[in-house]
Recover the amino acids of this structure.
């Protein structure tokens, strides 16, 4: 029933906004934890995938919008299904979660998914590191995840309140420097 409501709402959005919409947020449900997926891949395939697939299929058939979902944590055993259901973008890319190796993600899924996030760890490096450590992690992540496109820089998740301002500045300065050196932008 919820899928039918969502599809009807998407028709209304399309009529009202058309191509002014570029990205459509499909879900904000977290399917991962720090150490594993919240549920088995079989359970995900039964309870979520068919419904998200209907929504993504409708969007791709009827619009030029990209599909986006927020889901934290370890997604390793769900990523093939996430791709198969038609999701275009995942955020955040929680590289601090078990199995979420940036090299593996980019190699296996970099031509199938846009990774939006993962640029610096908001649990350890950004709040507790020094500006040099922050900048080094940002550059390392950009080198891996932006190679060949399909990457939107962002932190792994929200920046926590006790993060030192100089570390935030170091992260965004590193992105700016990276872009200037590689792209002249």
């Amino acid at each position: 029933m919820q899928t039918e409501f969502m599809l009807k709402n998407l028709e209304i959005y399309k009529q009202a906004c058309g191509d002014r919409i570029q990205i459509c947020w499909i879900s904000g449900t977290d399917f991962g934890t720090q150490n594993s997926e919240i549920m088995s891949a079989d359970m995900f395939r039964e309870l979520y995938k068919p419904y998200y697939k209907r929504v993504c299929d409708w969007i791709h058939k009827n619009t030029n919008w990209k599909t986006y979902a927020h889901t934290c944590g370890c997604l390793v055993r769900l990523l093939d299904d996430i791709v198969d259901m038609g999701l275009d973008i995942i955020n955040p890319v929680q590289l601090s979660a078990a199995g979420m190796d940036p090299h593996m993600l980019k190699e296996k899924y970099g031509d199938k998914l846009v990774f939006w996030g993962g640029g610096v760890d908001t649990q350890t490096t950004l709040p507790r590191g020094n500006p040099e450590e922050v900048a080094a992690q940002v550059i390392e992540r950009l080198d891996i995840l932006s190679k060949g496109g399909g990457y939107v820089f962002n932190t792994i998740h929200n920046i926590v309140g006790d993060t030192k301002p100089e570390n935030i500045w170091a992260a965004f300065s590193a992105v700016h420097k990276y872009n200037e050196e590689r792209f002249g932008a």
Summary: The mean pLDDT is 96.
